[in-house]
């Protein structure tokens, strides 16, 4: 056999594999069941899936006051391929990623994922998803909120996993290419009880599923 023939055979095999894997890879669906309730499903088109790793920030007015959410900061790692091909491995990542040290916006090189973008709150508390690597943005508002499952990972602080959410595009803001997101499979992020006045920073990780 000559080299060209072997090359063609190889390419044919690769092509066939890609064809069959395209057929097999059905659009994945995020887990929507928290404790007892379920987030509303969507019939919009799945665009991206990300693993978010960062912090949930709270403020305490004084000892014994209720912690108030002040914002959140996270790097969003592109996990779309994994969601399509091995969702159970994807679901195992947030409970592990929450234990990996996090430096805001400088975390980009320590996981084998491409950075999709960043998550933060704007100056008036709008949860923002800047998917800068694909030039898409969601300015969110919460449209559904359920407790994480009781078995969810409590995170390194041991405080518990933040709620699972559905967010949709906030009216009056120019979201672009994303109109709905879920935050699910959360790990960590719940606040401590306030013991002093000040800012409280709690490590968390989660999956974010983006639709349009
Ligand atoms: C999509 O979902 C919305 C509500 O979430 C519903 O009003 C609409 O009929 C659905 N469309 C299709 C094609 O199923
Ligand atoms: C939240 O905490 C992070 C540290 O993880 C900090 O970089 C960020 O500025 C804080 N954001 C807000 C809104 O407090
Ligand atoms: C990014 O998206 C916006 C809104 O659709 C568009 O106006 C802009 O030209 C895009 N930028 C690039 C670099 O593609
Ligand atoms: C906060 O205080 C409540 C009531 O005292 C207690 O049940 C809860 O476990 C505390 N939470 C944390 C994270 O310590």
From TrEMBL:
Keyword line: Signal
State the name under which the record lists this protein. Malate dehydrogenase
The record lists the organism as Hyaloscypha bicolor E
Q: Does the keyword 4Fe-4S apply?
A: no
Q: What residue range is the signal peptide?
A: 1-20
Q: Per the record's keyword annotation, is Signal included, yes or no?
A: yes
Pfam families linked: DUF3455
């Amino acid at each position: 056999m000559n080299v060209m023939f072997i090359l063609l055979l190889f390419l044919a095999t690769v092509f066939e594999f890609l064809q069959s894997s395209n057929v097999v890879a059905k659009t994945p669906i995020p887990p929507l069941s928290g404790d007892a309730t379920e987030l509303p499903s969507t019939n919009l088109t799945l665009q991206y899936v990300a693993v978010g790793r960062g912090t949930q920030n709270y403020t305490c007015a004084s000892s014994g006051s209720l912690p108030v959410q002040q914002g959140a900061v996270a790097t969003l790692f592109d996990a779309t391929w994994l969601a399509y091909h091995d969702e159970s491995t994807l679901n195992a990542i947030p409970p592990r990623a929450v234990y990996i040290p996090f430096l805001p916006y400088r975390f980009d090189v320590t996981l084998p994922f491409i950075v999709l973008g960043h998550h933060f709150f704007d100056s008036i508390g709008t949860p923002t998803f800047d998917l800068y690597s694909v030039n898409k943005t969601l300015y969110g508002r919460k449209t559904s909120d359920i407790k994480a499952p009781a078995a969810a990972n409590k995170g390194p602080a041991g405080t518990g996993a933040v709620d699972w959410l559905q967010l949709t595009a906030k009216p009056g803001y120019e979201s672009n290419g994303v109109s709905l997101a879920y935050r699910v499979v959360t790990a960590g992020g719940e606040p401590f009880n306030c013991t002093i006045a000040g800012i409280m920073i709690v490590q968390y990780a989660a999956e974010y599923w983006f639709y349009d």
